[in-house]
Design brief:
This protein has helices at 9-15, 32-43, 51-57, 68-89, 93-108, 117-126, 129-139, 145-169, 180-206, 214-218, 227-246, 260-278, 315-326, 367-385, 446-457, 492-507, 524-537, 549-559; strands at 249-252, 255-258, 296-303, 340-345, 351-357, 390-396, 400-403, 423-428, 465-471, 477-480, 483-488, 510-516, 540-543, 564-565. The chain is α/β, with parallel strands linked by helices. Among the domains are: 88-188, no CATH class; 296-345, no CATH class; 351-565, Rossmann fold (3-Layer(aba) Sandwich). A hairpin with a 3-residue loop joins strand 6 and strand 7 (400-403). This is VWFA domain-containing protein.
Length: 566
Amino acid sequence: MANRHTLGGVIHAYQQYDPKRFPSPTQPPPDMASAAFEHMLMYGQRRELTPEELARAVRIDPSQISGLGPSIDALIAILKERKRKILERFEMRKVRKSADRAVAQQAQQMTPPKNLRDRFHSAVKGEQIRDLERLWYATGNDQSAFARGLVSLIETLGDKYLVEQLAAKYEFTGRESLTVPEALQFKEELEKIDDLIKQLEEARETAQIGLIDMDALAEFTEPGDIDQLSALQQQIQDYLREMAEQQGLEQRGGSFQLTPKAYRIFQAKLLERLFSELAPSRTGRHQANIVGEGAVELQTTKPYEFGDSVANMDVTSSFVNALLRNGPGTPVRLGQEDIEIHRTRNSPKCATCVLMDMSGSMRYDGQYINVKRMALALEGLIRSEYPGDYLQFIEMYSFAKLVPRGKLIELMPKPVTVYDPIVRMRADMSRDDVSEHQVPPHFTNIQHALSTARRLLATQETPNRQIILITDGLPTAHFEQQMLYLLYPPDPRTEEATLREGQLCRREGITINMFLMPSWSQTEEDVRFAYRLAESTQGRVFFTAGRDLDRYVVWDYLSRRRDIVS
């Protein structure tokens, strides 16, 4: 009889349910936004985010999908049983000998031309398909009997290789003999079973039912065996679709599109990760003087000093001081010595232009992904914490172009179109018959990017103006008036033009912070250029691994915004 001590025992014994391992109703949902953004960071608009790819990218806790484990376990057991029966039924010794005889007999029946006889016997003895293919080309007549015989011999030798591979990969313990075609058929079946078992085991751990080849699985099971799995697959697809909609992913025309809500969610997760990493560390913090009027009042106060704004006066404390000095009664007469002023947190407006290298070299090691992730993190920080700040992104390649914030995710490194080891090109961009699309795009024009940023920052009414320059090496393009020069290897003429533009930024009070990313082609000269630019502009240079770029940039931006002034 069931009582409070035995209730649930039958369920645990026969249904494999563990009441201690039920998923919590507060368990966080799968992170759909991050999976979608990581896909877009890598591929931009070149490859649509389909439901299948999103399902593969998302990690789901299998405990959230009821009935997942037992169904998959049963299917794995069916496949393993089918594999066991094949291996215990057949043996491979005779079929291997049969494959050897087929190659030898076919070779003996062939009559090679006299000039190719030695090469033919050598190729047959070595059993090298490559040598037989070269011999086929040497015949000069692919319609001859010998050439057609070579094609057949190559196929027979290939079958022998597959039989040997089958014998080496699986341990057959049976006694029934196989023919070569039967052995190849069972080889394909066993490999398909192994793939399905691997897919099922992965799905059991990750709940990614979409990984399973349902058509292939149906070949080894009865129709009813996969009905439950198909139902689970539909359940997971519906669940993922619902989570995607909740996290700002809209499905249009068979692919997912990112909405502003998805941007906010992903940027919040980026900042959460960055702040958790930055909290215990001061890596990358650089003190700098920031000019601006305090605007955020603190609880602490101080006596009034000449020049303080009375807008920050602590009215209560000031009247109490006046009453203590003059005694009770009206009118209350405030003196300068009575006034208390709230201390303020410096909250000036800051204007920033971020120059992002999207030249051809940024495709190596996925550096462009790190740049875009940094841009999204910085944009999310400023939008949430400092909405009054000015921020503009500039794409830097053979030219410099403004990037709307909503298009950051779509940026991709420019394709390399010129492979010459030495490039000396120029283009008069003032001519009507010359357009940007005719110019190789994969060069690095830091000079034009600095010039564009300088003109934008000149219109901002704040002394706190900075340029964040992110690149992996020396500039290889520059403008002289309307003439565009593309020079590779990097030329001193380009460097001089870039340094001149940097000095113009310095004269206008614009700080240049250069973040030099690692590259396989980076040399000592790249590092020296970074130092020369920093010294000539009184700016700063950071050497950072690409994966830490977002951490360095966000932390440095915060450090320049958090100085407390009275």
